[in-house]
Fold this sequence. Notes:
single chain, about 350 residues, alpha+beta, D-amino Acid Aminotransferase, Chain A, domain 1, D-amino Acid Aminotransferase, Chain A, domain 2, nine-stranded mixed beta sheet, about 25% helix, binds pyridoxal-5'-phosphate
Amino acid sequence: MLDIKIERTTAPKEKPNEDKLGFGQIFTDHMYIMDYNEGQGWHDPRIVPYAPISLAPSAMVFHYAQEMFEGLKAYHADDGRVLLFRPDRNAQRAGNSCKRLCIPPVPEEDFIEAIKALVGVDRDWIPTRPGTSLYIRPFIIATDEHLGVHPSLSYKFIIILSPSGAYYASGLDPVKIWIEDDYVRAVRGGIGEAKAGGNYAASLKAQEKSDAEGYAQVLWLDGVERKYIEEVGSMNIFFKIAGKVVTPRLNGSILPGVTRASCLDLCRHWGLEVEERRVSVDELVSAARDGSLEECFGSGTAAVISPVGTLRFGDEVMEISGGAIGPLSQRLYDTVTGIQTGKLPDEFGWTVEVK
Ligand SMILES: *Cc1c(COP(=O)(O)O)cnc(C)c1O
């Protein structure tokens, strides 16, 4: 058990209009902070008013990007309960990201306790309109004042909260995706399977390119042969090819999504044939040509399921499901969001209540 000191704000902010919530622009009244020093370990857990923090310009995170983050949501159930979705998975993944980046991990039970405590303090900030939620962003930064290249000996673990709007205004909107064959996001042996800011810095250039071409997101190919499908922006990718559910297997450079794992669990539970394997872009192009590419969708915490209507690879433009939403995409979306918001029974024990 953490001994969390709570300092409440004396100047609560006005809550935003729930109809106009976007993503990640508004922050709640409080944040969680805990410090790490060698010798002391993680210590001084506290919830304080949301405010800028002070760091030395020489703090290592600014120079060598020793940083990791997580992302999950708290949902307002119709019966008034506040639910988290599989936070144990985020805690576990945070531990793996920390190990890869030489950051001392926060014990999994402390990670979850800290989230619950902060969400509890700011529970009035959880929006209630359908599709809305409270986005939770835990992160750790290296704070040693040092320009030498080595792991920092001091860190801060911080959690901030942001009320977020319904991802879909009306029904699931299929997106257009750009398959990138020049820039790569990650390579095996790199930090692709860690949730680290550095991966996103590496991704911006290709995103600029796909924006300019009128595409919503980038689909990455493997960093070595640029031949096998990896993932999309901040989502994992699924295909339905000739009746089978297919997703790239976790190979060390793909981020292991909690939504991905949940979709796989559900598809298997429903008795669908599921394959986690290598998927080449050539296979996709021929499946699109012969009509066996039935569906394509991204999976991630933000959108849950994001149907893909168009895939573009070089000169090849692949239209999927006639640009509409496939039945599997819709079923997964309805089931995952139903469980997250307590509308459907939680058969798998995925939700955790914040009291
Ligand atoms: C967070 C993330 C995902 C999706 O993971 P979820 O746990 O499902 O939200 C996929 N890819 C990348 C690169 C990510 O950062």
